[in-house]
Amino acid sequence: MQPDVSYRSCEELSVLPSRCRGQENHRPCYLPESEARASPLPQAGGTECEGAGRFPERMKKPPLRTARGIAQLCARIAWQKKAEDILVLRLGVLENAPADYFVLATCSTETHLRAVAEAIEEATRQRGVANPRREGWEALQWVLLDYIDVVVHLFRPETRAYYRLERLWGDVPQLRLSERTHRLYTVSLSVPQASEDAPGTVP
Question: Quick one: pLDDT at residue 107?
């Protein structure tokens, strides 16, 4: 059995070559933690580090350490599984908020919803995140995965339109997932009020 080796990304270690910093298309390389501390900076080719995007399959991926990282991973997996209207609400700006982030996504069918939920659970488990508390598996209209600091809400379209969590938490920042960089970015600091002639709709 090969010993466990802790790998860290060059971005996390702040050893990324200066000409690569700030490049959205940069794909980080991963270095053993001991090597990263002792070795020179990774070489860059264009806007990518040498070995960009590589991570040894036999090694575990770095565990997620932040609520934002968990929210971003959940949003990315939902997008990869073809969920629609993926929106992240940053509740942590509020006092006594039930979580730091809500991740909302719409799934077309019960089968689709189950597949997205199971994929998110598997992806978070692989990154060292504890199993979530689960609700809604019987009806499969609104499935909730509660990771304490991050709560994922997977809806069928009509259920999401009815409950409108975006409106309920309309005074918090909204974030979307960039399909190019797979990172969250802020799109709005608040949600505009719904028009009276269009009840139940979500823009």
Answer: 98
